[in-house]
C-alpha cells in the first residue's frame, strides 16, 4: 500500500516539526517531475493489476479459522523463489501481517493476447502462494476476514500501543515500521481512536433493533479497513493529457464498479446492512482533527491548514475534483486546497485544474517520516516527499506521475503518466478478477478510441458512491449516468439508470458492455481471443442484469441458509469457517459456484512450482556422499 522507506520512523511530535518541510518539498519534487516529464508522448499502453490476499489458519476438526500472521514471511519466501522470468509475479507488503499483495512482475502490453495473460498470471500467483503455505493455511481472496475483532478478547488480546484498539492487537499490523507508524500517527493527529460504524443488517431475530433504530457494528482501528483486500488496475497513458482524461472518466465508474464487485457483507462477525468495503476503510484512516471535521478545536501552526481547515472528506475517499481542463463544468463539490501550494503551482505555470488537484492532496499532513530522510532528500533526484503525501491520499482513482528514477529523453525505457483505478473489491476467483481487469481495460480503450464522455457532476458521483454500498446495490439502486456519452454531445442528459441499463444498455443508452464488444470488433479481435473475452463480458453482463450474484449476495445467502444461523445477524465461528472454506475452494476450482460464475467452471489451481535451475554450487565430498546414500 504505497511507498516503503526503510529506517527509524519519527514519533508524531518530532514528525510534526517536519511536516511543513515535507509538504513544501513534496510540491517542489512534483514540479520537478512535471517539468522533466511533461513532454513525454506516444508512450505505449501498458497496464497491470494488483490482487490482495489474506492468509488464514484453519482447524478442520474444531471448525475454527484465524488469521495467520505470516504475510511478511510468505512474501519473503515468494520473492526468493521468483526468477527473472517475464511472465512471473511480484510480491508486495500489505497493511495486515496476515496479508500479501501480488502483481505481474512486469506490466501487460497493449495487445489482445495480454488480456488473456491476466488470468494466467493471477492463477500463477495463487498457485505460487499455495507452495509457501503451511498445511493448515489457506489464502482465499476475501475482502474482509469475517471474524476480525472477534475472539481476540480478554488476556489474549496482546498489546496495541500503535492502534490502542480493544479488539485487534498490533501483532496484526505488518512489522515493517511504516505501518505501525501510520496507525499511531493517524490516531494522534485525529486526537482519538478511529471510530468506525457500519450499519447492522436487520434479520428477523436481530435483538439490537429492539433498543436502537439504526444499530451499528462498531470498530476501533485501522486494521478493520486497511485489512480489506481489493483489486486495483493501473493504466499507462500515452501522455500527460490522456492520463488526466482517463482519471476523470474512470472516476465516474468507481461507484459503479464498487457496486458490481461488492463482496463485503460480513464484518466483525456480523452481517452488515451494506455490501461494500469503501466507507469502512474511509473511516478507519480518518485522521481529521475535530476542527477539520467541523467541531471546535485549536490551531497548530505545524499542521497542514493549522489543523483547523474544514475538510469535507477523509483522506481515504472519493475524489473531490476532476483534473482534465475540459472537465471543469463538472467540479461541483467543495474541494479544499492548500493556498500556498495552489499559489506556487499557478505561479510556476501549472494550469488551474492540476493545481487544484495537487493542492488538494497537500491539504493533508505526511503521516510517516524517517530519521535522516527529511532535509537530506534531494528534490531533483527523489520524489519521496511527494510520494509521502500522494501515497496516503487514498482515493477512488489515483493519478501517478512518473517516478523519480524514470529516465526521460534518452530513449531509455521509462515509466510514463499513469492512472490507477482503485474501487473494485477483490473477487473469489481469478476468472472474475481477470474479467473485471479486462473489462476496465476495454472500457478505457473504448473511452479513448470512441471519444466517449462519461462525466457527470462530481456530486452525482458521490451520490452513486453512497448508493453503491447498499446491500444488493446492483438489484436495488439506480445510479446517475449520462444517456449521451459521445464526446460531441452537449452537456448530456443526466438520468438515473439501473446497473442493467448502464452495463447492458437500453432503448436510450448504448451500454458499456456493448461498447466493449464494439471495440473488439473495431480492433478485429481474433476468434480465439474473442471467445475468451466473451466469457468475461458475459460475467459482467450477467452480474449487472441480476442473473448472476455478486460475491456479497452469495455470501449473505450462504450465511442465512446455514443450518446453524439463528437469524440474529451473528456469523458464528463455525458458519465463518464453512464460508471461508467454501470461498477458498471456489477460488481453487474445487467447488463449483454457478450462482456467481454461471456455466464457467474454474480449472483447479495446482501448486505453482518454481522452475528449478540446472546450474548450482559445487558440492563437497561429504555432501555428495549424503546425496548418493540410499
Ligand atoms: P501501487 O501499490 O503504488 O499502486 P504497485 O507497484 O503495487 O503500485 O502496482 C502497480 C501496478 O501497475 C502493477 O500491476 C504493475 O504491473 C503496474 N505497472 C507497472 N508499471 C507500469 C506502467 N509503466 N504502466 C502501467 N502499469 C504499470
Ligand atoms: Mg495494496
Ligand atoms: Mg500495490
Ligand atoms: Mg503499493
Ligand atoms: Mg490495501
Ligand atoms: Mg495500487
If you had to describe this structure to a student in words, what would you say it looks like?
Belongs to the glutamate--cysteine ligase type 3 family. One of its GO terms (biological process) is glutathione biosynthetic process. This is Glutamate--cysteine ligase. InterPro entries: GCS (IPR004308), Gln_synth/guanido_kin_cat_dom (IPR014746). Its EC number is 6.3.2.2. The chain is α+β, with helices and mostly antiparallel strands and 630 residues long. The protein has a single domain, classed as Creatine Kinase, Chain A, domain 2 (2-Layer Sandwich). 38% of the residues lie in helices and 11% in strands. The protein contains 20 helices and 17 strands. It has a six-stranded antiparallel beta sheet. The chain has a three-stranded antiparallel beta sheet with strand order 3-2-6, with helices on one face. A two-stranded antiparallel sheet has the order 7-8. Helix 3 packs antiparallel against helix 11. The radius of gyration is 24 Å and the shape is globular. The termini are far apart. The relative contact order is 0.15. The model has no long low-confidence stretch (mean pLDDT 94). The site of adenosine-5'-diphosphate has 17 residues, from strand 1, strand 5, strand 9 and strand 15.
